[in-house]
Amino acid sequence: MTSIADLIERYVTLSNHDDIDGVLACCANNVMFETVMNPRGSMRLQGKDQVREVLAGTMAAFKDRSHRLASIIVDGNRVAAETVFTGTALAELGDGVMPGDQVAIRGATIFEVENGLIVRICDYS
What we know:
There is one protein chain. It contains 3 helices and 6 strands, in the order ααββαββββ. By secondary structure, the protein is α+β, with helices and mostly antiparallel strands. It has a single domain (4-124), classed as Nuclear Transport Factor 2, Chain: A (Roll). Strand 1 and strand 2 (41-46) form a beta hairpin. The protein starts with a helix and ends with a strand. This is Nuclear transport factor 2 family protein. Residues 8-121 form the SnoaL-like domain.
């Protein structure tokens, strides 16, 4: 049986390898994905189809894209992960980010797991 921490590490590793199907295999069919970006607002997606779209968009928007887990804390079925994202923008992305710009974002992600699958992902940046 895979531990919750191993599941999250697998999710991140598969994302770094642009393996959308592998990432989604870590998730429940009704997975909820939220991004909280203060003060610019938030995004909330429900289900694998919607999450697939945002993953594909993110993967296409950056080259040399990488997520790194700086730390991870497991509490029951919840995981708090400090994350570091880096990549090179391939398009104009808003907030002054232009093609060729290096992007580095430090944030936190809260994961919830049920029955060995991720049911909620909430990114804070």
